[in-house]
Amino acid sequence: MNRLRYEFDHWDDAIHGFRETERKKWYPHNRDVLERVRQVAFDGAIMPYIHVLDLAADGVIKPHVDSTRYCGTTISGISLLSDSVMRLVRTDAQKYQQPVTETVTDAKSADSDAVYGHRRFPEALLENGFYADLLLPRRSLYIMCHTARYNFTHEILSKEHSTFLGTAIPKARRISIICRNDP
């Protein structure tokens, strides 16, 4: 990863200040950890390539629902290097159940959700009260499946907004090891 530059343009504009790669082969100790993740988070196999995302201290992951085209019912991640805050915001219960088939190049579509490729970016409105901030301590595992996976956006809050229960959470560089199951 050290040879890669931090990027600020992602194909769907979901991530800024990141480096990423995918790995299929791991050292035996790492394979043991990933096997434990598979046993805890997945009912069956995980995709063979594991996503490694390096988010700079000033990097951000914007609110999004992962495309059903690229992953199935479960997403899990191991958070490394830094504590961070993940925000989940409730979306329309039916809207994200199926893959998006249209591609819109305008900034907004008719239903007020920006669409880039095959991923929707709902407006994360907190007025509806259906949101939760989750503290992801370094070396923790999170698992999003079913309702959390499809009916909530998820994001990693920026350094400026990184608070949990009124306490500032210092956000530094963060690496996440992300496992998914097949769509």
Automatic annotation (TrEMBL):
GO terms for cellular component: mitochondrial matrix. This is GL20813. One of its GO terms (biological process) is fatty acid metabolic process. Coiled coil: none annotated. Its cofactor is Fe(2+).
